[in-house]
C-alpha cells in the first residue's frame, strides 16, 4: 500500500553531504502495525517524513497504491497526504483553546463538511472519550490527549497513521492504552507506523524494523543490536534464517508469525 524502494536521502549542510538513508526498501501493508526503532540520528524521522509525503527522496521511489508519489507536484503530494495519511506526535500538538471535538475537526476545517462534527464525536467515542468531547487539552490527562490526537489523525479516513514517539510522553500504563487504541485502528484496516525507542511498543506490533546508520534491518532494536555485537547481522536484502527468528522473545498473544512457538 505504502512502499519505499531503494530510498536514499542525502542532506547538504555547508560543503558536507550526509547520507541519512542508504537505500531503504520497506512495504507497509493495510492494517499492519509496524515499529521503526534505532539509535538517535539513525534516520527514523527522515524515513517518517518520506513515508508521510512531507519530503522527497534523493534517490529511489515512494509509492502509494502503486503510484510513484516522488514525481508529484507539491500540491499533488499535499492532496495525497491529506487523503491517505494521519499523523500522531509525541507532544500531541493539540490546540489549547479548542475543545477535544474541535481539535479532532481541525484537519477538516477548510472542507466545511456538515458531517465533520458527527464524525469527530464518533471518533472520540471510539477512542473512549465520549464523555470528554467539550474538554480542553488542559482538562485532559496525557493519555487522553494522545487519544484525541489519534482521533484527529483518523478524521480524514487515512490508510496509514504515522506516529512519532507516540508513547514518549506517557507513563507505562497510559502508553499501553494508547497502543491498544492503535491495535484497534489496525483492526479496521488502517496501517500504523510508529517510530519509537519504547520496547513496550513491540508487544503490540505485527512487525518491527530497526534503522542503524541509515540502513534498515528486520527486528526490534534490542535484537538487531545483539546481532551486531555478535557479528551475525545480515545486510538488508539478505533474508537469512537468523532474520526469521525475530519472534523468539515475544510475549504471549503476539502477531509476529506463528513459527517459533516452541522457542523459550
Ligand atoms: N534537514 C536536515 N539537514 C541536515 N541534516 C539532517 C537534516 N535532518 C536530519 N539530518 C541528519 O540526518 C541524520 C538522520 O536524522 P534523523 O532526524 O532522521 O534521525 P532520527 O533517527 O530520527 O534521530 P532521533 O531519534 O534523534 O530523532 C542525522 O545525522 C541528522 O543530523
Automatic annotation (TrEMBL):
Pfam families: ABC_tran. GO terms for cellular component: membrane protein complex. Residues 223-233, 255-264 have a biased composition (Basic and acidic residues). Residues 236-248 have a biased composition (Low complexity). GO terms for molecular function: ATP binding; transmembrane transporter activity. Keywords: ATP-binding, Nucleotide-binding, Transport. It comes from the Archaea. Residues 2-238 form the ABC transporter domain. Residues 223-264 are annotated as: Disordered. Coiled coil: none annotated. SUPFAM superfamilies: P-loop containing nucleoside triphosphate hydrolases. The keyword ATP-binding applies. InterPro entries: AAA+_ATPase (IPR003593), ABC_transporter-like_ATP-bd (IPR003439), ABC_transporter-like_CS (IPR017871), ABC_transpr_LolD-like (IPR015854), MacB-like_ATP-bd (IPR017911), P-loop_NTPase (IPR027417). This is ABC transporter ATP-binding protein.
Amino acid at each position: 500500500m505504502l512502499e519505499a524502494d531503494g530510498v536514499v536521502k542525502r542532506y547538504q549542510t555547508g560543503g558536507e553531504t550526509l547520507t541519512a538513508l542508504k537505500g531503504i526498501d520497506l512495504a507497509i501493508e493495510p492494517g499492519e502495525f509496524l515499529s521503526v526503532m534505532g539509535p538517535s540520528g539513525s534516520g527514523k524521522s527522515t524515513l517518517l517524513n518520506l513515508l508521510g509525503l512531507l519530503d522527497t527522496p534523493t534517490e529511489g521511489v515512494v509509492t502509494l497504491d502503486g503510484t510513484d508519489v516522488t514525481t508529484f507536484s507539491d500540491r499533488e503530494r499535499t492532496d495525497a497526504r491529506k487523503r491517505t495519511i494521519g499523523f500522531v506526535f509525541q507532544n500531541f500538538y493539540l490546540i489549547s483553546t479548542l475543545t477535544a471535538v474541535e481539535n479532532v475537526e481541525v484537519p477538516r476545517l477548510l472542507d466545511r463538511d456538515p458531517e465533520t462534527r458527527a464524525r469527530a464525536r464518533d471518533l472520540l467515542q471510539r477512542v473512549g472519550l465520549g464523555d470528554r468531547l467539550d474538554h480542553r487539552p488542559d482538562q485532559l490527562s496525557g493519555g487522553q490527549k494522545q487519544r484525541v490526537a489519534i482521533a484527529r489523525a483518523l478524521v480524514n479516513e487515512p490508510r496509514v497513521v504515522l506516529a512519532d514517539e507516540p508513547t514518549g510522553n506517557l507513563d507505562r500504563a497510559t502508553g499501553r492504552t494508547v497502543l491498544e487504541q492503535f491495535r484497534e485502528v489496525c483492526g479496521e484496516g488502517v496501517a500504523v507506523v510508529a517510530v519509537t525507542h519504547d520496547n513496550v511498543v513491540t508487544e503490540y506490533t505485527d512487525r518491527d524494523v530497526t534503522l542503524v546508520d541509515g540502513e534498515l534491518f528486520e527486528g526490534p532494536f534490542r535484537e538487531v543490536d545483539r546481532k551486531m555485537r555478535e557479528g551475525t547481522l545480515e545486510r538488508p536484502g539478505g533474508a537469512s534464517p537468523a532474520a526469521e527468528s525475530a519472534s523468539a522473545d515475544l510475549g504471549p498473544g503476539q502477531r509476529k508469525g506463528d513459527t517459533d512457538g516452541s522457542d523459550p
